[in-house]
Amino acid sequence: MPPSLPIRTPQRQAEVSWFSALCADDYEFLGVPDGNLRSSYEHCGNIVKKADAHGFQNILLPSGWIAGQDALSFASAMATQTKQINQLVALRMGEVWPPMLARAISTVDHITQGRLCINIISSDMPGLRESNDARYQRSSEIIQILQKLWTTDGPLEWKGEHYNFILPTCEPAKTFQQNGGPLMYFGGISPLAQDLCAKHCDVFLMWPETEDRLAETMRGMSDKAAAYGRKLDFGLRIHVIVRETEAEACDAASKLMSKLDLEKGQEIKNRSMDSQSAGVLRQDALRAQSKDLFIEDHVWSGIGLARSGCGSAIVGNPDQVLAKLNRYMDMGIRAFILSGYPHLNECDLFAKYVLPKLPTCRLNEVQGRRVPNPVTPLTTAPRR
């Protein structure tokens, strides 16, 4: 059924993405570090290549001041080792002089032949605390500079609050994608964050909440985007635990929690630069009100006891997980960034039980099986 909201992608399709643990977020037992699962080029690369082989359409490469991999450098290395998957690279605005950032993004976009999109991050710089106003004003300015550099022929003069420069040419920043550059994904629930996305970005990412709260957020964001003459797509970042039976899935969730020390879990959460963000606090509040850590049917919030950012998982058998994703699609959600623990194992399980039943899976050349791909993938749609 068509969504009731005006969105960029009205067709009932899903961009199904996985997650690579560049920021040391992979466990067999939540909160218990495992040397075999540490953030390394080899391990994180194996996750990307596994997701690519299974036919996931995109993969999120996160960013943070944690021992691990730099997202854009890592994406460049993965570009020639993957066949069809897009890479969603998290970039914190302000870390790099904008013209050089535009050129770096353009370089990776050419290496990937357009299989690149950007997750805009506006949290504090490592070791620096700033006001929300300062961070979002700078991010807004940088996004506009990037888009100008990607689309302007000839010279560019920029006079802003944070940046002032004159460039004789924009040619070094020209991207492989000729539709305005890589699509921009953004997540944030504060008023300033929402306004930034409504004004400049393409896909608004949400963290797990109840369906009614997600729907409320989507309505509000659609109104904000419409005020700027724009439409957004909506995405959901959520974990999954899928097993042959619901009981096995619940047992897997219990096993994941079985060695968690709550104080250690809080320490792990606090390492993240978004641990006190409005979105994390909203998830914490829902967890506090939940029964047995389920904030609604099949949405289990235990992961948020030892993880900032996305703190809940869809838990169930294949039909239950698929039904939940279908409900989200009926609401108008078009992008899903999924993950599970350990990431390689859960990637296999989701690809086995659920991925072939979703509408935009691609040809899986490795396993030689074809699944439907009736429409153009979300990330290649032109910006408007």
Please, could you describe this protein's structure?
By secondary structure, the chain is an alpha/beta fold. Helix 3 (98-112) crosses helix 4 (132-151), helix 4 packs parallel to helix 5 (191-200) and helix 5 (191-200) crosses helix 6. The protein has helices at 41-54, 71-79, 98-112, 132-151, 191-200, 211-227, 246-257, 262-270, 278-289, 318-331, 343-353; strands at 15-19, 58-61, 86-92, 116-121, 156-159, 164-167, 184-187, 203-206, 233-242, 294-296, 299-300, 313-316, 333-339. The longest helix is centred in the middle third of the chain and has 20 residues, at 132-151. The strands form two sheets. An eight-stranded parallel β-barrel has the order 1-2-3-4-7-8-9-13, surrounded by eight helices. The protein has one domain: TIM Barrel (Alpha-Beta Barrel).
Q: Determine the CATH topology.
A: TIM Barrel
Give the CATH level 1 class.
Alpha Beta
In the predicted model, the low-confidence regions spanning at least 5 consecutive residues are 361-376
Instruction: Give the termini separation.
Output: 23 Å
- The level of helicity is 25-40%
Assign an overall shape: globular
Rg over alpha carbons: 20 Å
CATH hierarchy: architecture = Alpha-Beta Barrel
Q: How many strands, what sense, and barrel or not for the largest sheet?
A: 8 strands, parallel, barrel
Please trace the helix and strand order, writing H or E for each element.
EHEHEHEHEEEHEHEHHHEEEHEH
Indicate the structural class. Answer: alpha/beta
Report strand order across the widest sheet: 1-2-3-4-7-8-9-13
- CATH 4th-level superfamily: Luciferase-like domain
